[in-house]
């Protein structure tokens, strides 16, 4: 017999998760004068927006954590050295919206295969799995992946289907209690609920899917459980404002600068007729996070430029990379999307902040994720700042010329490099 699920049912799981979050990622032993760093990243141009740090520094790594950030650490003090002269060295990049459930979804890419293309050390699954298949994501993907993985649980119990029939054409798949339970049971890696609100996903169901997603966050009892709300062309112009009005502080509006039309080819985005919706500005002001989620159809320069000029700038830069978007001319790899914003007038510090500390705080599961502070997990990205003419294209064939782009060079996760120098034994977290 079915009994109503109450908030109390989820509290035990949530409490366990918050206790986990407070345990340090490793126990640090004091380093003696003759102890060596496991790895030294030497001579890089370090940029860490979390501590307003910019300058040439050496980074000493030991036991999987940042042990020292100093002007000069002698090579003799390290077991292994990566020379980073001339490279930009940042905290490991955090991709807040990616599709990293390979084998379990029709669009997923293995997160570790993205590393060479976008230097990410952390990726968040943008709702690939729902209640029916989240266990598969956890057991078969998270456990076998070096990149740190987190996820939004899809409000649809079947997860994100999308191609060719979207998951919420049938609203009965949006199951509040099942999503709440899955979020609570997996709160160490699940950070909230994903819902796709464009007309090509929810048909004529209006705001009901979003209302169920918010109810699932509340019902889960997980502290800080948030919504990742995908937008695109919605059924009518007014519906976009209704969606925006429902979003709460710290909820994430992804594809925020989508210019995709609805099914009647009308433009019902956050910028309509060149004007930013008052509801979008209000959402921004009450602390809704504006996330890029570029993808294959969700970034429009004309929407972005108007929204930014009228007060709704981005908070986080994410890729929305998957097997379809990765083949599009917009090339939505994280470092390429960061490069687009670098050429839209944002500083290097701005774009690195939007792909490190800000998304890490939104995840809020690992102490000091997204920083290079001593005691942080030793996740480090090394990039080349390539000067020279470059052309970018959005997902609606608008082109922009640029003067610089970021190229991934080398990545270290949990103190272990991807590729050389190899670790022996090849032990990772
Ligand atoms: Zn997506």
Automatic annotation (TrEMBL):
The keyword Hydrolase applies. Zn(2+) 1 binds at residues 97, 99, 194, 320. Pfam families: Amidohydro_1. Zn(2+) 2 binds at residues 194, 230, 255. Residues 1-29 form the signal peptide. The keyword Zinc applies. The modification N6-carboxylysine is found at residue 194. Its EC number is 3.1.1.-. InterPro entries: Amidohydro-rel, Deacetylase_Atu3266-like, Metal-dep_hydrolase_composite, Metal_Hydrolase, TAT_signal. Residues 305-385 form the Amidohydrolase-related domain. Keywords: Hydrolase, Metal-binding, Signal, Zinc. The record marks 196 as: Transition state stabilizer. GO terms for molecular function: deacetylase activity; hydrolase activity, acting on carbon-nitrogen (but not peptide) bonds; metal ion binding. PANTHER family: DIHYDROOROTASE-RELATED, IMIDAZOLONEPROPIONASE AND RELATED AMIDOHYDROLASES. This is Deacetylase. It comes from Usitatibacter rugosus.
């Amino acid at each position: 017999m079915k009994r109503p699920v109450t908030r109390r049912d989820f509290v035990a799981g949530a409490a366990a998760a918050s206790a986990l979050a407070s345990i340090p990622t490793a126990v640090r032993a004091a380093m003696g004068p003759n102890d060596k760093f496991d790895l030294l990243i030497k001579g890089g141009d370090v940029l860490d927006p979390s501590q307003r740090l910019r300058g040439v520094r050496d980074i000493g790594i030991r036991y999987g954590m940042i042990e020292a950030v100093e002007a000069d650490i002698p090579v003799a003090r390290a077991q292994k050295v990566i020379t980073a002269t001339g490279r930009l060295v940042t905290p490991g990049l955090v991709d807040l919206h990616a599709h990293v459930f390979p084998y379990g979804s029709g669009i997923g890419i293995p997160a570790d295969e993205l590393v060479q293309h976008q230097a990410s050390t952390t990726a968040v699954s943008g709702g690939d799995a729902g209640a029916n298949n989240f266990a598969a994501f956890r057991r078969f993907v998270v456990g076998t992946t070096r990149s740190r993985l987190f996820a939004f649980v899809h409000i649809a119990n079947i997860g994100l289907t999308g191609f060719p029939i979207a998951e919420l054409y049938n609203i009965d798949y949006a199951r509040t209690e099942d999503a709440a339970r899955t979020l609570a049971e997996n709160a160490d890696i699940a950070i909230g609920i994903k819902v796709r609100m464009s007309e090509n996903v929810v048909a004529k169901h209006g705001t009901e899917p979003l209302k169920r997603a918010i109810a699932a966050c509340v019902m889960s009892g997980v502290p800080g459980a948030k919504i990742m709300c995908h937008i695109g062309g919605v059924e009518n112009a007014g519906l976009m404002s209704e969606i925006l009005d429902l979003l709460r502080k710290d909820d994430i509006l992804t594809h925020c600068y989508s210019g995709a039309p609805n099914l009647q080819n009308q433009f019902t985005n956050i910028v309509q007729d060149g004007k930013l919706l008052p509801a979008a500005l209000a959402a921004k002001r009450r602390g809704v996070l504006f996330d890029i989620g570029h993808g294959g159809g969700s970034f429009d320069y004309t929407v972005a430029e108007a929204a930014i000029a009228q007060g709704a700038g981005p908070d986080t830069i994410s890729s929305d990379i998957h097997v379809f978007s990765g083949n599009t001319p917009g090339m939505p790899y994280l470092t390429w999307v960061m490069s687009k914003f670098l050429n839209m007038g944002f500083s290097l510090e701005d774009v690195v902040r939007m792909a490190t500390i800000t998304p890490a705080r939104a995840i809020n599961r690992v102490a000091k994720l997204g920083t290079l502070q001593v005691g942080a997990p030793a996740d480090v990205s090394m990039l080349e700042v390539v000067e020279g003419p470059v052309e970018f294209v959005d997902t609606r064939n608008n082109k922009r010329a640029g003067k610089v782009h970021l190229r991934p060079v080398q990545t270290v996760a949990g103190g272990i490099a991807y590729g050389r120098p190899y670790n022996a034994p090849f032990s990772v977290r």
